[in-house]
Design goal:
Layout (H helix, E strand, L loop, with lengths): L2 H12 L8 H5 L11 H11 L4 H12 L3 H7 L4 H9 L7 H10 L4 H10 L9 H11 L5 H10 L6
Amino acid sequence: MNESLIQECRLYIERGGEDTQTEAEGLCRPSFRLMDIDAGEVDFYLQFNRNLSFNERLFLLIDRTGQHDSDIYKKARIDRRLFSKIRCNEKYIPSKKIVIALCLALELSRDEADLLLSSAGYSLSSANDYDLIIAFCIDKRVYDFFDINEVLQHFGFDVF
């Protein structure tokens, strides 16, 4: 069991979702100049941040990864038929747990995950320990389902 991950997650929950990194660590993030930004990144940003349906946003993200749909739904532990339903029915909205699994499989940043969840009508709440654990994993870039399930199980939640 990854005790340090569990201890850090416990602290994250106790702080109500506030990041556990020190202020000094946060100040060391690199800044970018406009010249450093690729035009493709700007196009993706504009496309991604428009008001898109869940279906449109999901498949835009999948296309960005360059992976096959099957790689994503297998990594997210989603049945092929359910994924086909998501692809074929633009108005279909899967459960919050499925959307979270897709966020993790796509290894989304917190902002991207929040946008995908929002486009499905969901959010990660700082008042819910399960949501805080998921937010913690995303913030810490922990995307391995084995590790995530270990933390969820430690805190008494159902696993993926």
